[in-house]
Structures are given as structure tokens and as C-alpha cells.
Design brief:
heterodimer; A: mainly alpha; two-stranded antiparallel ribbon; B: mainly alpha; elongated
């Protein structure tokens, strides 16, 4: 069904960003605009989601060019749900950055760039054209480069060099893949590609193209041999920025892998084994890295890598149950990882450091906030009935029915290491007293109540969504079930874009 | 013509990969630029090269009676060039700033073990 409403969640962030550019250097105005824009974004995303949920896949042909020729935007259930969750995460980050960021950074245009980034994310989720996906990816990475370097401290710039080099490389791989794909099929529309790719005579060339896409998306989503840029850059920018990156950027890579490999390159035995090997190694290396970190954000960075492996493993099995697990985990991961980095920012405000060795005594000083954080941590670890638990049930079920026992072992290892590191962090940061000889630099205590609320509210907001996802898992499972149906049988998607096929 | 372009693409990709693997930041930048150009020419080549047949079709023609050049690869390359221009501009400024701060062109020197965080 054609509906121009699809682009509303993209445009709201574009307009917010432009309006903020007009209010250059007026940080208070920009903060208010940012919160209003993100709230409107959530409302529009909810409307898009309900539309798609009730009336099926929506499409929009830009400039009214018919489907395989023009750029098409498609909102299926996966895209619209991801747009909704991204908007929620963006609202939380907006609220948090209103107080959790130094004024200096806001003066140099933090908020407009942040909204351009969210616009890019929403666009990437909604596009139905592979080259347009590349363009949205570039919008995302250019915005993220600026956010990464804003402030210009030495560590930040050093992290940014690695981040920039790897991401540009990933884009080049992706572009090369698109070039070959266009050469062998003559189309860029994803639905059309799904049909044309089967007609290509030289199927080994298709395999090579798939590898280009896998490397490009693999760098972006930080899978095993390509993840090194992530832990060496994500601990450098301010926490509000790290929350956006940690929660959303790697997940766009996962979304792209899911989309491209479910629609265009249906995984064959070789691809499945390759993805599975990558997933297992990602989990193992990510968890080994997490074990030895004493800086909270470095620890979280490795946990991101570790949990990316869970999702890639689900894609590798490519059965309905496995995809249900992957997609559920994707939703849970966006919410929780964004929240984790916001929590890291809050801890930094309260104690002036993120090194676990010099942290302590948070539970004694702030018991209520600590309990709120505990809910998020429990959910990350996957204590039933919170949101991290349900997707793992599906992933375990899928790995046992498919005989992927090594993956099941890796899942257990990954979950166990997550539990261990988070329990360790809890006792170090919250239960332990402040170590002797450490000067506590508490910026949180003297703040006015309003600013305190603004810092804790986004964590509470995302925590409530996580609780909802966990406690109301039945509804989410119905949704995830529908999404994985759409991913496995792509006929409805293709028909929605190209019209009825003969 | 095709053969020439294939050799050129191979050279650009090869040189790009070689330069990216060097430790110097300037060579990293040059490598990224060469890879980008290689990718652009690859799209141009794989889009099919048709000489002297611009994709302008007579208004009265009802049927395609000839092979026309495909305009899409050129649109793609144009987009990709603009994007890589912006990225390269950013990369140059970033590397210049890093050089001013670290006072070294060596990528291995970018490991300040600074536990100070924001």
C-alpha cells in the first residue's frame, strides 16, 4: 500500500536539526527543541508502527517513479519497530544530553548533528533501495564522525582516527558490493534484486558479492575479526554520544545483515557456516575482552561485541525460531545498551571517574537510583522475566534443534561472562565503599532538582520500556513471530513493492 | 577500453590496500582515496560501457531499437564522489588535528593510555 506517511519519522529529525541550526549558539533553545523534536519523533513512530501493524507493509515511491526504477521506501514490521525503538532511544539521549553534556560541546552544534544522525538511522531502516541504504549509511557515519570528535580531546581524536578509517573502509566495501551487484543484475531495488538474483547464471559471482556485503556490514556491526575499532573508540566520546553509538550504530549493521541476507542473498550452507563461525568467535573474543576491563565503558564496549555475536548466530541458523530470537534480542539490545552508556554517564557525574577501582559507595548514597540501575543490569544479564531472558530462550531452542552445540556453548559462555562482569561491576561500583585516598568529585549532588531529574528520567524511561518488553513478552513474541514470518517468506515484501507478480 | 579499466581498477585497489596497511596516517588517507576511486570506476565499468549512444530517446519512438548507455551508474558515481569528497575533507582535517596533538605521523603512536574520561 502506498503511503507517504512513511517518511514522517525521518523528516521530523531533519526539520528539528534545521531549526536548531537556525538557533546556532543558543543552547537552551536547542535543548528544548531537541526534546520536543524527539518526543514528536516517538509519537510519529508509534503512528507508523500501528499503521504497519494493522494494514501491512507500506511503501512510498519517491517522485512517483514506479518501483524498480525510482528509489522506494518500505516500512515492514521490522523497519517500523526498529524506527520506534530508535526514536525511544533518541528521546532518552536527548533528555540526557540536555544536562549531561558540557556547554562547550553544545555550542559547536552537538544537537543538530545528533538529529541528523537519528534521521540517518530512521532512513536506513526505511529504505528499500540498496544504493539509498549506502547513502543513509554515509549520513550516519559523517554525523557520527563529528559527534565522535566534538570536543577535540587527545584520546577522542585518537579513537576517531581508528573509527573513521574502519568505517570509510566498510563503506568502500559496501560500495564495491553494490557496483558488482548492479553489474550482474542491473537493478538496485531490494525487492527487484530478490527476484533478479536467482536468474544470474554465474552464481559464484553472487557469493563473492555477498562476501563484500558481509565484510562491509561486518565492520559496521563489529563482528569477530573486524571489531577492533569499537573498543578502542567507544570509551572516548561523552557518554550521551557513546550511548547513541553503542545502542544504535552497531545495530544498524545487524539490521542491514538481516535485511540483505534474508531478502537478496538467502544464506546457503557455506554462508551459514561462515556466519556461525564468526558469531561464535565474536562471542568468545568479546567476553574474554570484557573479563579484564576495569573502566566501565570499556567493559560495556566489549559486552556490545559479545552480544553482537548472539544476533549474528541467530541469523546464521536462519530458521524461524532463530530469527525470532535474533530480532527480539536486537530490540532488547538497543534499549539496554543505550541505557548502559547513559548509566555510565550518570556514574561519571556522581563520582567523576569511570574506573571501577576508584568508584564505590553509590548504593549507600543513592539507594533508589541504584535499584533503578539494578533493573537495567538484571535485564542485560537476562534474569527472567526481564527482556534479556526471552530472546535467549529462542536462541537456545534454535541452536539445539539445529544441532549447533558449539553456538549453544558460546551462548552459555557469553551469558555467564556478562553475569560475572556485571556482578563484579555491581559490587565494585555500588556496594564497595569509596576506596581510601580517592577524592570524590560529585557533580550530581549540588545540581538543582530539575537537572537531577533530567539525568535520571531517561534511564527510568528506557528502564520502563525494558520492563514492558520483559513483562509483556507475550505481545512482543507475537510481533517478533510476525516479523520473522515476513523475513522468511519474502513474497509479501516483494509484492508490496513491485505489485502482484505473475 | 574494458581491459584498460580492469587493469586500472586492479591497480587502484591494490595500491589502496597497500597504502592502508602502512603505518603512516597520510598513507592511510591516500589509500582510502585510491580505494574510493577504484570503487567508482568499478561501478562505471560494471554498469556496461556503451560508446556514442546517449540515453536520449526520440519522443516518437515506441520501442527500444538500440542499446543505449545506462545513465544510472553515472548517477551512482556522482553521488559516491560527492560523499567521498566530504569524507576525505573531514579525514584530512581530523588527521591534521591529530598530527598537531600527537606530533607524529605514525598510527602506532595513537595509543595514549589515558584513563581520564568524559
Amino acid at each position: 500500500m502506498i503511503d507517504n506517511y512513511i517518511l514522517a519519522p525521518v523528516f521530523i529529525h531533519l526539520f528539528t536539526a534545521i531549526a536548531q541550526l537556525m538557533a546556532w549558539r543558543k543552547t537552551v533553545t536547542q535543548r528544548v527543541m531537541s526534546v520536543i523534536g524527539s518526543s514528536l519523533g516517538v509519537l510519529l513512530a508509534i503512528r507508523l508502527f500501528t499503521k504497519v501493524y494493522h494494514s501491512g507493509i507500506l511503501t512510498m515511491n519517491s517522485s512517483n517513479w514506479d518501483a524498480p526504477f525510482g528509489i522506494v521506501f518500505v516500512a515492514d514490521l521490522l523497519s517500523s519497530t526498529l524506527v520506534l525503538i530508535t526514536s525511544l532511544a533518541a528521546l532518552a539521549v536527548s533528555l540526557f544530553s540536555a544536562t549531561g553534556l558540557s556547554r562547550q560541546r553544545m555550542l559547536y552544534g552537538y544537537f543538530p548533528i545528533f538529529h541528523f544522525l537519528v534521521m540517518g538511522l530512521n532512513g536506513a531502516f526505511l529504505t528499500g533501495d540498496i544504493f539509498n541504504l549506502y547513502v543513509w549509511f554515509e549520513v550516519i557515519i559523517i554525523s557520527s564522525f563529528v559527534l565522535m570528535t566534538l570536543g577535540g580531546r587527545k584520546a577522542q581524536l585518537e579513537g576517531a582516527v581508528k573509527y573513521m578509517a574502519m568505517n570509510i573502509l566498510a563503506s568502500t566495501f559496501f560500495l564495491t558490493g553494490i557496483g558488482i551487484l548492479y553489474g550482474i543484475t542491473g537493478t538496485l531495488n531490494m525487492a527487484d534484486l530478490a527476484l533478479k538474483i536467482k536468474l544470474v547464471e554465474n552464481q559464484s559471482l553472487v557469493g563473492i558479492t555477498a562476501c563484500f556485503f558481509l565484510i562491509g556490514f561486518g565492520i559496521k556491526s563489529a563482528v569477530f575479526p573486524l571489531y577492533y575499532w569499537l573498543p578502542s573508540s567507544y570509551h572516548t566520546p561523552p557518554s550521551a554520544v557513546a550511548a547513541t553509538f553503542g545502542g544504535l550504530l552497531t545495530k544498524v549493521g545487524i539490521y542491514a545483515i538481516i535485511r540483505v541476507f534474508s531478502l537478496i542473498f538467502i544464506p546457503d550452507e557455506f554462508t551459514k557456516n561462515l556466519l556461525m563461525a564468526l558469531a561464535i568467535l565474536t562471542i568468545v573474543t568479546g567476553s574474554l575482552g570484557a573479563l579484564i576491563k576495569v573502566n566501565i565503558r570499556r567493559l560495556f564496549s566489549y559486552l556490545i561485541v559479545c552480544h553482537i555475536g548472539f544476533m549474528v548466530g541467530g541469523i546464521a541458523m536462519f530458521t524461524k525460531v532463530a530469527l525470532m530470537g535474533t530480532i527480539f534480542y536486537l530490540f532488547h539490545d538497543i534499549l539496554v545498551k543505550t541505557n548502559m552508556f547513559l548509566i555510565a554517564g550518570l556514574i561519571r557525574q556522581m563520582r567523576g571517574t569511570m574506573n571501577m577501582k576508584s568508584l564505590g559507595g553509590l548504593y549507600a548514597q543513592y539507594p533508589k537510583i541504584s535499584l533503578l540501575i539494578a533493573i537495567v543490569l538484571f535485564s542485560l544479564v537476562g534474569i527472567p522475566p526481564l527482556s534479556g531472558f526471552w530472546p535467549k530462550v529462542y536462541l537456545f531452542q534454535a541452536s539445539f534443534t539445529n544441532g549447533q552445540y558449539i553456538f549453544a556453548a558460546a551462548l552459555i559462555l557469553g551469558s555467564f561472562v556478562t553475569l560475572y562482569t556485571i556482578a563484579n561491576m555491581w559490587s565494585e561500583v555500588f556496594w564497595k565503599d569509596v576506596p581510601a585516598g580517592v577524592e570524590v568529585d560529585n557533580k550530581f549532588e549540588p545540581m538543582p532538582l530539575f537537572r537531577k531529574i533530567l539525568l535520571v528520567l531517561p534511564i527510568g524511561l528506557l528502564g520502563c520500556v525494558t520492563l514492558y518488553v520483559g513483562l509483556n513478552a507475550e505481545a512482543i513474541i507475537v510481533l517478533v513471530d510476525k516479523i520473522s514470518d515476513q523475513l522468511i517468506s519474502t513474497q509479501p515484501y516483494i509484492e508490496a513493492v513491485l505489485g502482484k507478480q505473475n | 577500453m574494458e581491459l584498460l579499466l580492469i587493469i586500472l581498477i586492479g591497480l587502484l585497489y591494490g595500491a589502496g590496500v597497500y597504502l592502508i596497511l602502512r603505518r603512516s596516517m597520510v598513507k592511510l588517507l591516500l589509500g582510502i582515496m585510491l580505494l574510493g576511486s577504484g570503487a567508482n570506476i568499478l561501478i562505471f565499468l560494471l554498469g556496461g560501457i556503451t560508446k556514442g549512444k546517449p540515453p536520449v530517446i526520440d519522443e516518437k519512438a515506441k520501442l527500444f531499437q538500440d542499446i543505449f548507455a545506462d545513465p544510472i551508474p553515472q548517477a551512482l558515481i556522482l553521488t559516491a564522489i560527492v560523499i567521498s569528497f566530504a569524507l576525505t575533507a573531514f579525514a584530512i582535517v581530523l588527521l591534521k588535528r591529530v598530527y598537531a596533538l600527537v606530533n607524529s605521523d605514525d598510527l602506532d603512536d595513537l595509543n595514549t593510555n589515558e584513563e581520564e574520561d568524559i
